[in-house]
UniProtKB/TrEMBL annotation:
Protein name as annotated: ABC transporter ATP-binding protein
InterPro entries the record matches: AAA+_ATPase, ABC_transporter-like_ATP-bd, ABC_transporter-like_CS, ABC_transpr_LolD-like, MacB-like_ATP-bd, P-loop_NTPase
Native source species: Pengzhenrongella frigida
Gene3D superfamilies per the UniProt record, alphabetical: P-loop containing nucleotide triphosphate hydrolases
PROSITE patterns: ABC_TRANSPORTER_1, ABC_TRANSPORTER_2
Family matches, as Pfam families: ABC_tran (PF00005)
A cellular component term, taken from the record's GO annotations: membrane protein complex
Source lineage: Bacteria, Bacillati, Actinomycetota, Actinomycetes, Micrococcales
Length: 273
């Protein structure tokens, strides 16, 4: 078992080294990710952008331990994910990673509060029960902080069907943060929201980084959403094609336009307008 990452000299929260994912064989081969090297700093909000099919989801899934690499290495803190067996990957996802999805993925029969606390209920073996109970008690203060930050105090007894999309996504964010995971991966978190609810959710993700010290890596198609991040990583054809710090919607759009002109599809884009 690798050492506790917190005892090492603050490695990046997530890291890829020559990370590749190849689907299919022969003529049907798709190189979804092609020898990617990248670091994601702890305590930062990073957005991953790029054209459809550029490898964004593949990179996120490999970094989160949701999929296996064809070659290369992925690290979560000091832990090399590539090479972990299924059991270790399951524990890693449960204990050290939080997820926010486009579809919210809340349990419909549970209240908002029960949904938020779910990750603390799920963990492990009977012999861990006492440690779990202690962790839960310690988490009460963190729960209250999250609920206050996300503006959910008067919604805790509601079931998902009784909440707006924006409220459901805020519950999903609280659930992703409750166990203080090393990294929260957000996959198109505003894809199902109107622009006002989307802006609220993005503000909360940014506050969770700036005020609560968390680490967020988000895939998005939306330049305005990406501009909430501290950094935007651009992917094209499975490779890193750009890196923008302190992004604005304009700088992100300019970066995406540069990608299109690089691959010669600028005319297609202009024609589509
Ligand atoms: N299970 C699979 N089998 C075969 N090819 C796949 C599979 N999953 C992804 N791909 C291919 O790998 C490439 C990268 O896919 P990926 O989903 O990572 O892109 P993306 O940037 O997230 O795209 P989008 O923005 O459309 O969601 C694409 O060419 C895709 O068709």
């Amino acid at each position: 078992m690798p050492a506790d990452p917190r005892s090492a000299a603050t490695p990046p929260a997530a890291r890829a080294r020559a990370l590749s994912k190849v689907y299919g064989t022969g003529e049907a081969t798709v190189r979804a990710l092609d020898a990617v090297d990248i670091d994601f700093a702890a305590g930062a909000f990073t957005a991953i952008m790029g054209p459809s099919g550029s490898g964004k989801s593949t990179l996120m899934h490999l970094l989160a331990g949701l999929d296996t690499a064809s070659s290369g290495q992925a690290f979560l803190g000091a832990t090399e994910i590539t090479g972990l067996d299924d059991g270790a990957l399951t524990r890693l996802r449960r204990d050290r990673v939080g997820f926010v999805f486009q579809q919210f993925n809340l349990l419909p029969m549970f209240t908002a509060e029960q949904n938020i606390l779910l990750p603390l209920e799920l963990a492990g073996l009977p012999r861990e029960a006492r440690a779990r109970a202690a962790a839960k008690a310690a988490s009460r203060e963190w729960f209250d902080t999250l609920v206050a930050t996300l503006g959910l105090a008067d919604r805790l007894t509601h079931r998902p069907a009784e909440l707006s999309g924006g409220q459901q996504q805020r519950v999903a964010i609280a659930r992703a943060l409750i166990a203080k995971p090393d990294v929260v991966f957000a996959d198109e978190p505003t894809g199902n929201l109107d622009s006002r609810s989307g802006a609220e959710v993005l503000s909360f993700l940014r506050r969770s980084v700036r005020e609560l010290g968390r680490t967020v890596i988000m895939v998005t198609h939306d330049p305005a959403a990406a501009a909430y991040a501290d950094r935007v990583v651009l992917l094209a054809d499975g490779a890193i094609a750009g890196d923008i710090s302190e992004p604005t919607p304009e700088s992100v759009l300019a970066g995406l336009d540069a990608l299109r002109s690089l691959d010669g599809s600028v005319l297609d884009t202009a024609a589509a307008r």
